Amino acid sequence: MSNNDAKCTTPAIYIQQDIKFENVVTNNVCKIGPLKALLSQFRLRTPIFYLNTCVRSCQIGMRWERGPIARFRIICELEDNIEPVFQKIVIKINSFVISDTFTLKTERPEYFEWATCSLPTDIKDSDNFEIHFTIEHNIPIIKRNTMNSSIKIAPRKFELYERLKTMYYDKPCTDVKINVGDKEFLAHKSILSRSPVFAAMFSYEMLENRRNIVEIKEVNPNVFEILLKFLYLGEIDEIKITESMNDLLIELMKVADIYQMEDLKTKLADIAMTTINISNVVNYLILADQYNILDLKKSSMLFIRKNHAKIKDTKSFENVIQKYPALKAEMFCYLLKE
């Protein structure tokens, strides 16, 4: 199917391995907006960032309270319980440092204790915040001598992840072509079969399975490309989605439901819960109700209850009242709770 069959080479034979560790420092900056918006968030996390081959991904979780007080912790996916050495955070307002460097301490491998930082009492709701965080960590590296050469790779899960990246980006040995609108994608049936819809398609003598060509209509090619990447790598571009005025997230949720990808729906719901605001909360509530996403529905209801005075006169709120009577009744019952 693919023109890259020459890339399907025999894997190297591993005959020896030695493990060593290398220390590195990761610096990141995250602009998180004005205090007023932060105080209204039910749950807030930075976009995902990556440390090394064993700490697969990290986020900074935040809670902002009147006082003013900010609480932080790191949430990360680890390989084999290998922990970062230490983590420190500096908070800035309008590019000026307002806090001393403080450290986040380990509680358990994937979560860290909440660290509390008292902020100056004269900060304003309109002040914009930046979080500067520095993480020193170890990178475990496996040196493997093959029959041909000595190479460096990361252990276990990340090694598999790197191979999946090669399959997604380089497309060796593809066995199916997918036509979405005016765009063509080469893929592997084994990876597409993570979706129950594709799995059923390739399990029977359907036309798509015999021809190795799938025609998809009424799906935006850019949306399908994000779905395809998620099938291979379990990743989506959170920044791109959150900056698209939420239309992309809603369209992705629809396509994820069509292809019965519950893990993608869960990921999208998590992104939605971290980006709820006055302008999108009603759309998220409708989305959660439509696709039965209970956590997002609860978060949306809670946000509406806390900000009802600002939301009740919006067009989207009136839309719920007019077009979704069952949801309207459920929402009003929730609003009446203490």
Automatic annotation (TrEMBL):
<dbReference type="InterPro" id="IPR011333">
    <property type="entry name" value="SKP1/BTB/POZ_sf"/>
</dbReference>
<dbReference type="InterPro" id="IPR000210">
    <property type="entry name" value="BTB/POZ_dom"/>
</dbReference>
<protein>
    <recommendedName>
        <fullName>BTB domain-containing protein</fullName>
    </recommendedName>
</protein>
<feature type="domain" description="BTB">
    <location>
        <begin position="174"/>
        <end position="240"/>
    </location>
</feature>
<dbReference type="Pfam" id="PF00651">
    <property type="entry name" value="BTB"/>
</dbReference>
